[in-house]
Design a protein that fits this description.
With 404 residues, the chain is an alpha/beta fold. It has three domains: 55 residues, 2-Layer Sandwich (Alpha-Beta Plaits); 189 residues, HUPs (Rossmann fold), CATH 3.40.50.620; 126 residues, TPP-binding domain (Rossmann fold, 3-Layer(aba) Sandwich). The chain is built from twelve helices and 21 strands. It has a seven-stranded parallel β-sheet, sandwiched between helices. A five-stranded parallel β-sheet has the order 18-17-19-20-21. Helix 5 packs across helix 6. The radius of gyration is 26 Å and the shape is globular. The structure holds flavin-adenine dinucleotide (FAD).
Length: 404
C-alpha cells in the first residue's frame, strides 16, 4: 500500500499542492498538509511542490491474501413478491461455469417470507446449497436487514466470489455489502472468467464504452461483481438435484430498519424490450417521429416490442425504458431488427447477444453490418412497408429480401 508523505521541515505551507490536486485529496487545515481519502496517488502535488517536501511512500506492504480460506461462488437470489427474478438463473449459470473452472460449488443467498418452495426450486438448477432467510420482516427488500444478513453469511461461509444482478436491488445492496466486507466490486460486468490462481477477471465497458476494462481483485476476498439481466445465458435445470436448503437462525437485531413498507403497488409494465423475443429497433435514421409508428407497426405484426437508440430518447421521441445499449437496457431476443441504426459500440453493447441480428441501413459501410447476420442496404421507408405488407399477406419476408 502506497501513501503520500510530507516532510514538514521542508514544507513552507505555500498551498501549491492543494491547488494542484484535482480530487480534493490534499488539505491544509490547522497549518498542516494532510492527504484525504480522495487522494488518488496521482503525484500532481509532488510536481507542484516547490521545495520537494512531498513524496510517495511505497514501503508499506499490503495485506497478504490467503486464497485457500475462501471457496465457492455465492449468488444473491433476488425475489420480488415471492417470485425469483430471472437474472438469478443467469447468475447461477455463470456461477456454475466459474465454480467448475475452480473446482468449487455454487451456493445461494435467498431472503424473503414464506419462500420454502422457491428455495427448493433453486436446487433444480445445480446449486449445492441455498441459505434461506425466511422471516416476515424480510418480505420486502429493505437495505439494512438484507445487508446485515448477507454480510453475516459471507463472514461465516467465506465465499471466493459473490454475484448479484445489476438491478435496482442489486445495485443498492452490492456496494453496501462490499464496503462492509472491505472488498472490491465491479458493476455491470459483461463477461466473467477465472485465472488459474482463482482471481476473477471482471470485464466491463469503460470510457464511454470505447475500452473493455479487465478488473481483478488480487488482494481482497470475496470478489464481487454485478451483472445485468440478459447478459449471461440462464442455467438449465438438472436431472438430479443434489443440494440442500438451510434455514440459518436469524438474529432479530439484524432485522432493524429505518424503512417501513406501507404497501406495494406493482409497476404496470406494457411491452418490455428486455423480455421480448423479437425487438424492432429504431435509430436516428428514421429522421422523423412518424418512423416510430411505422416500426411500431412492424413490431406489432411480429408480436415483438419496439426499442430505440439513445438519440431518440434524447429527442423526446421515445421513453428511456425503450433505449437499448450501454446506458439503456440489455436485450437478448431471438430476433433483433435494427432500422436506421449506425451500430455505435454503446448501442451494440446492449443487443449483440441477440440470436439473429437483421439490419436495414442506407449506408453500406455502417458498422451495424459488422455485427448483423443479415442486412439490407436501402431506405427503411421503402423496405419496412414491404415487410409489413408481406407479413399481412402471410407471405415470407424472404420475398422482400430477394427483391432487395
Ligand atoms: C457514455 C455513452 C453512453 C451511450 N449509451 C448509449 C446507449 O445505451 N444506447 C445507444 O443507442 N446509444 C448510446 N450512446 C450513443 C451512441 O454513441 C450513438 O451516438 C448512438 O447509438 C447513435 O444512434 P443511431 O445509430 O440511432 O444514430 P446515427 O449514428 O446517427 O446513425 C443513423 C444511421 O441511420 C442511417 N440512415 C439514415 N437514413 C436512413 C434511412 N432512411 N433508412 C435506413 N438507414 C438510414 C445512417 O446511414 C446511419 O448509419 C451512448 C454514448 C455515450 C457517449
Amino acid at each position: 500500500m502506497s501513501h503520500m508523505r510530507v516532510d514538514h521541515d521542508l514544507c513552507t505551507l505555500c498551498g501549491e499542492c492543494v491547488a494542484a490536486c484535482p480530487f480534493d485529496g490534499v488539505t491544509m487545515e490547522s497549518g498542516v498538509i494532510e492527504f484525504t481519502d480522495s487522494c488518488r496517488l496521482c503525484r500532481l502535488c509532488i510536481k507542484a511542490c516547490p521545495t520537494g517536501a512531498i513524496w510517495l511512500d511505497k514501503s508499506e506492504k499490503g495485506p497478504v491474501l490467503d486464497r485457500s480460506k475462501y471457496k465457492d461462488v455465492l449468488v444473491f437470489a433476488e425475489q420480488r413478491q415471492g417470485h425469483i427474478q430471472p437474472v438469478t438463473y443467469e447468475l447461477i449459470g455463470k456461477g456454475l461455469e466459474l465454480a467448475k473452472a475452480l473446482g468449487e460449488q455454487v451456493t445461494v443467498f435467498l431472503a424473503g417470507y414464506d419462500l420454502g418452495a422457491q428455495g427448493k426450486e433453486l436446487l433444480n438448477y445445480g446449486v449445492s446449497h441455498v441459505y434461506l432467510y425466511d422471516h416476515a420482516e424480510l418480505e420486502h427488500f429493505r437495505i439494512e436487514p438484507y445487508t446485515a444478513l448477507m454480510v453475516e453469511l459471507v463472514n461465516e461461509i467465506r465465499p471466493n466470489i459473490i454475484l448479484m444482478g445489476a438491478t435496482p436491488v442489486g445495485r443498492s445492496l452490492a456496494p453496501r455489502v462490499a464496503a462492509r466486507l472491505r472488498t472490491g466490486l465491479t458493476a455491470d460486468c459483461t463477461s466473467l472468467s477465472v485465472k488459474n490462481n482463482g482471481d476473477l477477471v471482471q470485464t466491463r465497458p469503460a470510457f464511454g464504452g470505447n475500452v473493455m476494462a479487465q478488473i481483478i481483485t488480487p488482494r481482497h476476498r470475496p470478489q464481487m461483481a454485478t451483472v445485468r439481466y440478459k447478459v449471461m445465458p440462464a442455467a438449465n435445470r438438472v436431472a438430479e438435484p443434489q443440494g440442500q436448503v438451510t434455514y440459518p437462525a436469524i438474529d432479530e437485531g439484524l432485522l432493524r430498519s429505518g424503512i417501513k413498507v406501507m404497501g406495494f403497488r406493482p409497476h404496470q409494465v406494457t411491452s418490455s424490450i428486455t423480455d421480448a423475443e423479437i425487438v424492432v429497433a429504431a435509430g436516428r435514421g428514421i429522421g422523423r417521429p412518424e418512423g416510430l409508428e411505422l416500426l411500431g407497426k412492424l413490431a406489432g405484426q411480429l408480436g415483438g416490442a419496439l426499442g430505440v437508440t439513445r438519440p431518440l430518447v434524447e429527442q423526446g421521441w421515445a421513453d428511456y425504458t425503450q433505449q437499448i445499449g450501454m446506458s439503456g437496457r440489455t436485450i437478448r431476443p431471438r430476433l433483433y431488427i435494427g432500422c436506421g441504426i449506425s451500430g455505435a459500440i454503446q448501442h451494440v453493447a446492449g443487443m449483440r447477444s441477440a440470436d439473429v441480428i437483421f439490419a436495414i441501413n442506407s449506408d453500406p459501410k455502417a458498422s451495424i453490418f459488422d455485427v448483423a447476420h443479415y442486412g439490407l442496404v436501402g431506405d427503411m421507408y421503402e423496405i419496412v412497408p414491404l415487410l409489413i405488407e408481406a407479413l399481412q399477406k402471410g407471405e415470407s419476408p424472404n420475398a422482400v429480401f430477394q427483391a432487395g
